[in-house]
Amino acid sequence: MTPDLSSEFVGIYSPNPFWLASAPPTDRAVNVDRAFKAGWGGVVWKTVGVDPAVINVNGPRYGFWQGDNHRVQGFNNIELISDRPLGTNLEEITEIKKRWPDRALIVSVMFPLDEAIWAECLPRIALTGADGIELNLGCPHGMSERGMGSAMGQAPDLVEAVTRLAKKNTSLPVIVKLTPNVTDITWSAAAAFAGGADAVSLINTINSIIGVDLDQMAPVPTIDGRGTHGGYCGPAVKPVALNMVAEIARNERLGHLPISGIGGIGNWRDAAEFMALGATNVQICTAAMLYGFRIIDDLTEGMKTWMKGKGYRYLTDFVGQAVPHVSNWNMLNLNYVSKAFIDVNRCVGCGRCHIACEDTSHQAIEKIVDTGRYQVRSEDCVGCNLCVAVCPVTECIHMERLESGVDPRTGLAINPEPANWMQHPNNPLNQPVVKPSLEKKD
Amino acid sequence: MSNTTLIEITLDEPLLEVKFRRLEKRLSDESAYIESERCYYCYDAPCVSACPTDIDIPGFIRALAVGQAARAAERIIQANPLGASCSRVCPVETLCEQACVRMHEAGGPVPIGLLQRYAMDHFDLDSMKSAESVEIAALHAKPKVAVVGAGPAGMTVAYLLAQAGLMVDVYEAQNLPGGLNESGIAAYKMLDDAAQREANNLLSHPKIHVHYGKALGSGLSLPKLREEYSGVVLAVGLQKQRQLHIPGEDLPGVVSAVPYIAKMRRKEPVPVGKHVVVIGGGMTAIDIAIQIRLLGADDVHIAYRRGEEAMGASTYEQQLARDQGVFIHHYLRPVAIYEKNGQCGSIQFQPTHILDGQLQDQGEMVTWSVDQVFVAVGQQLETESWIAGTPELQLDSRGKILVDEFAQTSLAGIWAVGDCASLSGDLTVHAVADAKIAVSSMIADLASDMRSCV
């Protein structure tokens, strides 16, 4: 049984769920052609706008944060939307769609809130043969100062209005790309839903200053002594994106709005995580910018290998499977007790778990005098997991659930019945109501 | 005078475990992860160009980095069906790793060989697939081809042809497959029956039929094979042990290294001397020196008539031998072996040097007392028993079968690969590279024949 990666998203079919996000890699025909040759399932064409086209800076557009091994962890850009005429983009889109009919081709757009423009441009886009429209409501720099991009995306009423405008002027599916630069992503998603969006895609980049040049005393990337805030992406933003995807996926009022997951995806596992949290497909940019389109092999082969191992035949077998298990804190089982255990045979004696626990947690890890290795005192361990995070050795420290007996820390018997905060006696809501006295104290 | 005999030792599993396991270099899970993360994932990577079999090295390392060792192994096997053997025997410091772009950085090159070993160790060899390639599946009829020899080159040819959809008959002189991979390589490199398991897997392809105990000149004739098959691949290796041609060479205690290693690998008892000299400068000399040392020889000396730079053994192998207490001597040419108590008792050398690029004698003879001498000066193609029937088959000046860049011999419809072929290098990985060339040449030929028939 070979797993089948073919994907359907709001009626748009692609041979795999991996689309290139709207960004420099999808800026022009030559790139997109190479991407499709490499095997990408779909492309969201770099955001087009009205003529005259925008102008980009002529200095550095990107800043980055490199972690160990010089690997880019976070990436920030101050590039604007397409700086080529709308007509040129549409001609190339037409040609590419003709050449690659089996791939998904979505056109990302950013127009001002002016109905005449939408009424003129969306039909022109439809004529290219493109499969859908994505609304760029997320770009946090440059365009936002002109009242577009995240300036629209941050105001739910504008999100709704612009979505409505788009839907009114095209019969193509409309995907609303959301900005993460908001207080609550579900408000934006609800607005898109109310405006008639067929789907949402998220996250766009996070507003950021990636670093400061301490000689020039200016943010990087620095253009003639000045820098500006840009859009943050790359592996570092994945946790933010995963949460936002999950928040929308588990929100009942959003009526199973289809989600295209974006944010720091670099390999099959990242993609599978987004999809488990409810994304029907995923979009990728930074990883391709860092390594080239060839990463699609690793994405498709890796995903197939994993699916085969799990017995999943279709993507739909696992999309959303993790959503029912995402809950609010107050629904977690407070009777679940786990403790850290150190494998003395693997312990190298670096002492990092000890000092982390001793200084900043619960003083539960001590040195074994004879051997120089470390052990956990269960009577002090709260099961916080910090030692697992700092231990440099794989599988040296693990967490283990106490199934029965007594928790040596609390002296209380392990209760096999789950109980959450809503049921906990310490919850003020569960305490007898004491009406405050109105009498003044003397 | 009574003959003394050397102690006989059988290299069985417990002994292998005790004596040889510690020579094995392997990566732990965390080291494999850390090392895989060090790979830059180069585009058009120099390491791939440096691999004779074009393994997609950054590709398989990336699969390791994302936690899919078995997929990494599949990627390796796609390019090199002997990926497991090669990960154990390749002199990576002169191949892929020397080309690694991190070569001159702190921390050195990515340990590609060890990562490949790690990937292959996490792969179920029994799960090797047998997918037919589209290329040949399009042919109307499925021709039948013959492969003579089931060593590294022959096995790879057979496997790739079978994968391409052809019926393959393999003829092997011995009663088990593997060739030099099975018999000529030190046991410590092939622990856990690695070579045998790999060989059995390749040859268990449903389109391959192996006939054991059949060799050219004994049960097989090349003209007849040509008649019966659409194509014939010779992968017979080199069977004749080169000799020193010095007095005393036939004394008891003077042993050809390759048959001795073969016997050892078959777990038959072999004599182990106390004072041992190995003549030669290649991988086999190192292999036998290390093994005999670990099996209890008091002192082991490798004597090579040229300098270190001319040695066929890799620097890594030489160092490994020195680490085990083996001495390596250069510029010593063996002159005679003398008898003592009915077997070899001493060996005499003429020191040499290089003058005007020529190897010349220089200085006083030296004589060492010895009770065992291994001859590891290479092998030759044996042709006397079979070549008379095909006088058109040309040999090169070293007596190997002459081939062109497509591994084709001077006889149409016959290819030659591996050690017996004139253009091949002598490593396992070269045998695989050869096999790939021969297979694509053969498939192209058969396909054009088919087309012209229609």
UniProtKB/TrEMBL annotation, chain A:
Keywords, ordered alphabetically: Oxidoreductase
EC supergroup of this enzyme: oxidoreductase
EC number: 1.3.1.1
Natural source organism: Acidithiobacillus montserratensis
Domain of life: Bacteria
Protein's name in the database: NAD-dependent dihydropyrimidine dehydrogenase subunit PreA
TrEMBL record, chain B:
Domain of life (superkingdom): Bacteria
Name listed for the protein in its UniProt record: FAD-dependent oxidoreductase
